Amino acid sequence: MSTVVDQGADRDRDVDDAELLIAFIVYQLYRMVLAPTVGLAALTIFDAAIAWLTWREYRRGPVANQKRTGSIGSA
């Protein structure tokens, strides 16, 4: 039973990580308005892709993870 609770904590941490990444993306966009560079644009696109992948995995939830691994509590 504790593994289900632990997975819930992992999902919450994933969302917090995505929110932090989105905050960085917003700051990067602000910096690009002030002084655009190719490197910062590439980093922002990469960060947006990671945020999208994190959101997509969060949306799938623990049921999708159970189907892939065979059980909710497996490590």
From TrEMBL:
UniProt keyword list: Membrane, Transmembrane, Transmembrane helix
Transmembrane annotation, as ranges: 33-55
Record-given protein name: Membrane protein
Native source species: Actinopolymorpha pittospori
